[in-house]
């Protein structure tokens, strides 16, 4: 049996993942290019961030049909952490430590309570 795709439920997640990739490059991608003038990286970062907004704003608008604002923000933060961790390791060649893992796990535990609903 084919299940219909629930666009308001899944589209925001996909759009927020894509928007976070753009935003992570806008905020941190220039760290590999320290020889570039700061004003240049600010302008390039601003241009990249435009595409982040083109995805994040509609993601929140669509997502608000099925998620509360607190759930959308929490989702955004968890996606940001995952994208950032991958970016740090793959693009910046940085090492994540146990401390990073514990900190991220505590943030994820907080997200659990946001989505769990009232206790």
Q: Unreliable runs, pLDDT <50, ≥5 residues?
A: none
Amino-to-carboxy terminus distance: 35 Å
**Whole-number count of domains:** 1
Q: Name the helix and strand elements from N-terminus to C-terminus, one letter apiece.
A: HHHH
The secondary-structure class comes to mainly alpha
The residue fraction in helices comes out at over 70%
Mean pLDDT: 91
C-alpha Rg (nearest Å): 17 Å
β content, as a range?
under 5%
Helix segment count? Answer: 4
Number of strands: 0
Oligomer state of the chains in this structure: single chain
Biggest β-sheet, characterized? none
Categorize the overall geometry: flat
Question: Which characteristics define this entry?
Answer:
mainly alpha
SSE arrangement:
Blueprint: H1 7-28, H2 38-63, H3 69-90, H4 98-116
Helix pairs in contact: 1-2, 1-3, 3-4
Written overview of the protein:
By secondary structure, this protein is mainly α. It has one domain (7-116). The protein is built from four helices and no strands. The protein has helices spanning 7-28, 38-63, 69-90, 98-116. α1 crosses α3. The longest helix has 26 residues, at 38-63.
Summarize the structure.
With 119 residues, this protein is an all-alpha fold.
